[in-house]
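Protocol step 4 of 5: obtain the predicted structure for the target chain.
Materials: sequence only (see below). No template structures provided, no constraints applied. The aim of this step is simply to have a reference model before the mutagenesis design in step 5. Sequence pasted as it appears in the construct record:
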Amino acid sequence: MNTSPEAKTPDTPTLNTLEDMRMHLEDIHETPLAPNDPILMAYTLYRASLNDYEGMLKRHHKAITLVMNTAVEGLSHDDISKNLLAQNQILKRTQDIYDRQYKRAKILSILNLSIFCIFALVLIYLFIQ
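Step 4 output (structure tokens):
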């Protein structure tokens, strides 16, 4: 017969009082416990630390919720729209600058090629003379 706590423990029992804990231990271990058994002090300490931990989690949850709400309030729909519009305008200006630079580079390339051709023709003319 398997009497391990894992084998007999139901799905997460609700143990809110010392009596609930005493009955749960009796059910699992099949050993009667007196209402003033010292082992129940361990449960009292456990419950106190668990309550402190739950309180800390609630405080942290409230603080995180406050921070998140403040952050979300700062990002209203209008602010996001304005930010996207400004980014779009910057992108458009950047594209215009790029296009102008590309045209200048093409013109300078054609001008350099023209100067090279004229220089070559002048050299050819001078060598022929």
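Step 4 remarks: The radius of gyration is 41 Å. The longest helix spans residues 77-128.
Proceed to step 5.
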